[in-house]
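[Automated response] Your request has been received and processed.

Submitted sequence:
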Amino acid sequence: MRRWLPLVLSVLALGCASTKASAKADATTSATATTDAKAAPKKPLFERLGGKPAVEAVIDDFLGRVAQDTSINSGFAVAHVPRVRQRLIELVTVGTGGPGTYSGRDMTAAHAGQGITNAQFDALVGHLVATLDKFKVPATEKGELLAILGPMRGAIVEEP
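Generated structure:
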């Protein structure tokens, strides 16, 4: 909403101008502001999500949801949860343009032999969406994050 406020105010100022000179000056200002807004680089998704504290909060809530779901939590029973947490934070941080590196294995190697099904993957995505909704992540950012993570399905799911 904040991105649109200057444009809306410029349009209102332009509509309320009483002289041609004012209208022309306002139009020039509005055009410059609009051009500057388009030219300004978009912040990385990592920053728009709220940085490291937000990513950590999302991962913690997500892992809590997964731990409670008996249809998918069996793989986590033998996992080193603090390491899984750290790898997920790294994965999301790097994937969304944040600082650092991902120190885990590739998705195929990390999930080989686990027999993860499409239904289990969908349940994980459902938990992630519920977590993002809990933290009121805007639809644009939520969509961008899911678009980054979604293609990993092929490397994680092992059923035909």
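Summary generated for your ticket: DSSP finds ten helices and no strands in the chain. Residues 72 and 123 are 8 Å apart (CA to CA).
If you did not submit this request, please reply to this message.
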